[in-house]
């Protein structure tokens, strides 16, 4: 599981919105993956006999009879199939019993998508149309093949990612979400699936067939949103972990295994640590409560990150890092919330919502959580008119409507630019007179050129107005220089800073500063080390860190060198104790 984009693909594109409206009528087969039809040669490459022979050493030849399923939607995928003879039909099947042909494969083709790098659940069915002989390469060996066969591995990874992108565009193999389009619970589930690169489709009150589905499952208002999983299981008003469990993407944690490194947080810093540590042969597990990318993953476009002259979305950048981490064998467990770190145990033990995790070293990369201003009624409208990030899900809700946005940092600037292509009017409130001291120049210039954006300096929110439909207006503490004392809007975006996500450390011996950031640098040779031996802090959660993606990635790389020092010192003790990662 993870945010998937056309990573490692030269003509890269951002992750498409996974939200798709659909109906309950049988869907005719159509040109498969039509939106990526010009890239079919990359999505479905044909292997030569020599390439098949090179891959054969990583798998085992097996046989399937005509009519037998090689893999089934929702069940754990066994890996990648390289066809030697026969043909296989790959098709989508959803929880309402609808089917759609995706593609048919013959000799020289391989069957898999990017989820099989980690042995995730299959998103489609694969049916043998005739007797089939194929080489089955399990996930661990598939990763080994991709690393060992660099050029061939690049082609395989590109194809696997493009296939997931296309499945997302179709909503293939994912759940059907049923509910009101502006229901905070529905919006939250959409955001969870989108940021984790999992396909889904939506039926809301604007779809004529929604009522039929609601009646079919006897759903009451309190049951919405209703989720129909691919296997037909129906969830009523589920949480994200409940949905993840139904989809088979909630990871199982082995409390007996001891990792070399446990990384808490899958933002840029945490994913960088995973990539560098795993590529150097360390056993790594990454834990995150929501999705890859952290706060950066919600950025619509980052234009000052080195190596991307045209910019890249935070979600796309996180997707590339996520695939890289999986390629080298890192175990990424999402959604898993860490509740407590036991610093007095060796190896260190972390208590999570899904069980315990043990590791010789722990990297705190848990970032920050969005700060909520002290405004009456703010919790009542969170996710229902008040938002803390601007993804395609939120942009769709405020299309052609007036928006109020609060904040003057780069995250706010990126959101303003992105939302300006959807909203009718954006009124931006900032405490200072301008953006110059808080925002990058390229964003300031971009915002100045937007005709539907008005910036109001020395302005603060004083309260919220509501009507029978919900949030209706945003009131100011004092009238702004233009004499305006309120804005009529049902959509308020807040980018008012963030607090360190370190509450789970309070019962541990890790020292924090008065604001909750982790203190590091007591050990001169290990600048990222905390007050507890073997525990490190990087990224936004660290006191004194530079709040930039590039800086976070740099710290993720640097901490691995310091981890090697710690593991080298521990190794004699580990050998004597018989502890193995």
Automatic annotation (TrEMBL):
It comes from the Bacteria. It holds the Pfam family Pyr_redox_2. Residues 43-163 form the Cyclic nucleotide-binding domain. Its EC number is 1.18.1.2. The keyword Lyase does not apply. Residues 1-39 are annotated as: Disordered. CDD domains: CAP_ED (cd00038). It is an enzyme of class 1 (oxidoreductase). Keywords: Flavoprotein, Oxidoreductase. InterPro entries: cNMP-bd_dom, cNMP-bd_dom_sf, FAD/NAD-bd_sf, FAD/NAD-binding_dom, Ferredoxin-NADP_redctase_2, RmlC-like_jellyroll. Gene3D superfamilies: FAD/NAD(P)-binding domain (3.50.50.60), Jelly Rolls (2.60.120.10). GO terms for molecular function: ferredoxin-NADP+ reductase activity. This is Ferredoxin--NADP reductase. It comes from Paraburkholderia hiiakae.
